[in-house]
Amino acid sequence: SPASAAADHTASPCSAAESATTNAGSAAATPLPSLRLREAWTCCLDKCVDASPLLLCRHQREGGRSVAVVVGSHAGTVCATDLASGAIMWRTRLPTRVEASCCAAAAG
Fold first, then answer.
1. What DSSP assignment string belongs to 42-71?
2. Is the sign of the CA dihedral 17, 18, 22, 28 positive or negative?
3. Residues near 8 by Cβ (< 8 Å), separated by ≥ 6?
4. 12 and 31 in contact (C-beta within 8 Å)?
5. pTM value?
């Protein structure tokens, strides 16, 4: 049931994909794998978030990369968090609430 799937963070998009494909008139649907979701870390932004996060990738000379998750809240809090560890990279408070996704621009 949907309630039990939400309770254990299991999502199965197969039935929706299959019915969409069947309704479109395709012969056979390719089942999608079930996803097992877990909460890796949290970050307090003081109020709700209405927008999608911005992901910033930085490729390092050693061949690795780091990814920052940037998001703003209705409290005006904007925070960049390391995707892998959840460590806060920087945090600031704007004078008004954030209602849209953040965007990136080249500096200089």
1. ----SS---SPPEEEEEE-TTS-EEEEEEE
2. positive
3. none
4. no
5. 0.62
Dist CA 81 CA 44 (whole Å) = 11
Residues 40 and 86 sit within 8 Å (Cβ to Cβ): yes
Residue 10 β-bridge partners: 36
Residue type, 48: C
Read off the pLDDT of residues 29-57 as tens digits, 9 standing for 90 and up: 788 888 888 999 999 999 999 999 999 99
Amino acid letter for position 2: P
Express each pLDDT in 53-70 by its tens digit: 999 998 878 878 889 999
Q: Three-state DSSP class for 16?
A: helix
Per-residue burial over 30-64, b if 16 or more Cβ lie within 10 Å, else e, is: eeeeeeeeeeeeebebeeebeeebbeeeeeeeeee
> What are the b/e assignments for 65-96, b being 16+ CB within 10 Å?
eeebbbbbbebbbbbbbebeeeeeeeeeeeee
